[in-house]
């Protein structure tokens, strides 16, 4: 466990190219900055934005919508800034995902409701919106998710995620609309839960 | 395990007086209705509304405020329909309660934030408002709790509970503002969490 201080000093000043150089990135980085840059590098390919890691597709941002339309045909799209995301059969056991697309402001947004058991014996729902677009584009929007009924309202407002970063870390940090099964029951009607979704520009 | 149908038939038609008869209730009830009535009987004495069952005080609604002022002197009161409930040191370990009073519309409301581990290894915060008043009076109001910051907002709107029913069952059913420790971190500033509380008449 002897540190080679000379080598460390060299490594801390040498610049490395980003691994997406061949895709067009011209960034040159210190060893210590490389991982973080590549994680958010705009030349990193986009992965399929569908929740769950079952689809391994990767490509450019321009190809994402045609991938969804051809490979994930079952996803419904609604037009408008203010729509209802209806999740049916929320009482189905196990981990389940509900997905919908919303089109407005010339952009496509993916709405995701996920039922998960992050903690043993405690099922929770996580709802979130991601833009089919870059992080920079996502900064221009805000979304609101709202559960309504029986003199109660639960609302979450935030900036949409970009599909480039994805929703997994946000769900993991509860940085989204989170509610448990008893709240879901309170707002559901016959096992179906309607979530009001409103997108706006900021 | 032989059922005495004759006795059951008698029991199902005999009327019993409410156990709060001596306090003024004149209700007469079937055996099957008695428990539920007594639970919500307006002549049932009020218990101390402070969270946690440590104070065993009981009395009439008219005596509650003077009990709080004399025995629970440390509770702060703020005037106004729209105030900030500041919970300090939310990172303190274990189960913790924060309590405050809000006075408006000629009524007193108790604001409660509770940190609990309902599920093993998963700490959650529960925030709720109860009226120092009867269930009927509580129906005339609505409250809104709001966490704000970093381009995010979490809002819960509902009818205040009456201190006659208390908040334990609502917290148990998550029928209140619920958020976990990572969301608390997101909105907290230096370990202190400000919750915007707005009371309105409906
Ligand atoms: Zn790069
Ligand atoms: Zn795919
Ligand atoms: Zn009674
Ligand atoms: Zn007391």
Please state the overall shape of chain A, judged from the principal axes of the Cα atoms.
Answer: globular
The biggest sheet of chain A amounts to:
6 strands, mixed
Average pLDDT metric of chain A: 93
Query: Total number of helical segments of chain A?
Result: 6
- The share of residues in extended strands of chain A comes to 35-45%
The amount of helix of chain A comes to 10-25%
Query: For the CA atoms, what is the radius of gyration of chain A?
Result: 20 Å
Q: How many β-strand runs of chain A?
A: 14
Most residues in contact, chain pair and counts: A-B, 24 and 24 residues
Oligomer: homodimer
The assigned structural class of chain A equals alpha+beta
What small molecules does this complex bind? Answer: zinc ion
How far apart are the first and last residues' alpha carbons of chain A, in Å? 52 Å
Poorly predicted tracts of residues of chain A: none
Q: From N to C, what is the helix and strand string of chain A?
A: HEEHEEHEEEEEHEEEHEHE
